Amino acid sequence: MKRARTDTLFVTRLYRADAVAAPSFNRELERACLLTAEEDQAGLQWAKAHGYKGYTSYASLNDLTLRLPPIAALDKILNRHVAAFARDLEFDIPAGGLALDSIWLNVMEEESFHSGHIHPHSVISGTYYVRLPKSAAGIRFEDPRLPLMMAAPPRRSDAALSNRTFVTVMPKARTLLMWESFVRHDVPRNCARGKRISVSFNYGLR
Ligand SMILES: [Fe+2]
């Protein structure tokens, strides 16, 4: 037993950066999100038709970097972080080999939630948090191997993060989270008072 060891294989990385943008820029971004959420009738109708409490531009606007200067500026910030994450993941691709392929706004009202999903056809996905009311819901990630765990026992409640089947992360305003797009995640019901505003995005191979 003296030489026994346990290696870690097939790791799931979660990238987190706090305070990635200046507070003044974040306020500008918040105004742009709220204004768009008032004006984008197609997006509001889509949200209503799909039982989404609040607003998302996901199905209605695909040109936010051209339409909203704060989103174009955010894309520049994201590019740097995506490049850092790609290095961390040791992707064997050229520098700048990943490019934004979609970006959308989310203004979740009280009682809203987003059930478990992945982001197909992308490499890296993530969210920048603009505003989170006090006690707002975080985001929950699921072990991608879960469908294969036929007889795996449950994990201890104090298990290390890397051994848990579900991990809930609590971002703050101006936090950026990124993960590989195949990692399933959900947003539990937002029971906090006030709007939960975020910008989500996908990066794919250029
Ligand atoms: Fe998502």
Structural summary, described in words:
24% of the residues lie in helices and 27% in strands. The protein has one domain: Jelly Rolls, CATH 2.60.120.620. With 206 residues, the protein is of the alpha+beta class. The chain has 4 helices and 10 strands, in the order βααβααββββββββ. The longest helix has 20 residues. It is globular, with a radius of gyration of 18 Å. The mean pLDDT is 95. Strands 1-8-5-10-3-2 form a 6-stranded antiparallel β-sheet. Strands 4-9-6-7 form a 4-stranded antiparallel β-sheet, with no helix packed on it. The site of fe (ii) ion (FE2) has 4 residues, from loops.
- So, CATH architecture? Sandwich
Bound molecules: fe (ii) ion
> In sequence order, what are the helices and strands, one letter per element?
EHHEHHEEEEEEEE
Gyration radius (Cα, Å) is 18 Å
Shape: globular
Count structural domains: 1
Give the CATH level 1 class: Mainly Beta
Low-confidence stretches: none
Major sheet: 6 strands, antiparallel
CATH superfamily: q2cbj1_9rhob like domain
At CATH level 3, the topology is Jelly Rolls
Number of helices: 4
The secondary structure category is: alpha+beta
Mean pLDDT metric: 95
How many β-strand runs? 10
- Helix fraction bin: 10-25%
